[in-house]
Amino acid sequence: MGWKGKRVVVTGATRGVGYHTTLRFLAAGACVVGTGKDGQRLKAVEAEFQKKGDFVGVKTDWEDRAAPKTLFDAVAKRWDSVDVLCNNAAVQTWKKDWYDEGLDLLEQHFRINVLAPHELIYRFVPLLEKGQEPRIINVGSGAGNFQSLSTQADMPTYRLTKYTLGGVTLLWAAQLKGKIAVNLLDPGWLKTDLGGPNAPGEPEDGGQRIWEACELPWEQTGKFWYGNQEIPF
Q: Apex CA 114: angle with CA 108 and CA 118, to 5°?
């Protein structure tokens, strides 16, 4: 599949998996709109990326209910179609159990990890339908599969939000089948701000796995992937 000139949206593009995903697409000749929460960091990364290809940054804070529309409006003003929407941005807070988390964390992180990706899909579908073999990649986690929820009680909000993102993926995949491929991806446990310094993998490994998932046959939809290997929800 050729990526030259393809239009790609990556949330959380300024660091970790999103940063390396953006590098891969730019190297392949794709045009990328990427988001970041930290304005200074976004400006620095934008300058770096623009030396490598066609990149535009959009400042977004996914705790803000208006953020999905802000991103959509910025992209729609620039492009009349989109080929890939990569819902990568997320938050994780490690706590040992529900009582350690308290009652506020679930609502806060649900907005960032579930509601924002859902709204982005909702808004971007009209642009994606005009794309070439359009696809949506929702970045999930092996920590949020059914087996993990059944056997481990730590960081419950993160696990539940990623498990719920899997359900969002399945439902959108069913609705958009034959029009837009919608898949969930586990990037692996990586040394990112989210994964921490003790993770076995590197951030670029996650970028590679997103790239592999985007290279899958377009007909593959409604599945959970670790790169190009299918895994259980």
A: 130
3-state secondary structure of 52: coil
225 confidence band (pLDDT: 50, 70, 90)? very high
pLDDT in tens, 130-155: 999 999 999 999 999 999 999 999 99
The one catalytic residue in 6, 19, 37, 158 is: 158
Structure tokens at 145: 């599969």
- Show the beta-strand stretches assigned E in 16-118: 31-36, 55-59, 84-87
Does the annotation mark 158 as catalytic? yes
Q: What is the pTM of this model?
A: 0.95
Instruction: Select which of 6, 37, 162, 223 is catalytic.
Output: 162
Q: Determine the CATH number of domain 7-231.
A: 3.40.50.720
Domain boundaries, the chain: 7-231
Q: Is residue 162 annotated as part of the catalytic site, yes or no? A: yes
% of the chain exceeding 70 in pLDDT: 94
